[in-house]
Amino acid sequence: MRAIVAVAAGRAALFLAFWLMIAGYDAADLPVGVITALAATWASLKLIPATAVRLRFLPLVRFVLHFLRQSAVSGVEVAALVFNPKMPLRPGFITFPCRLRTAGARSAFCAISSLLPGTLPTGSDEAGGLVIHCLDVDKPVAAGLAVEEAFVTRILGHE
Question: Residue 36: which domain range?
Answer without folding.
Answer: 2-47
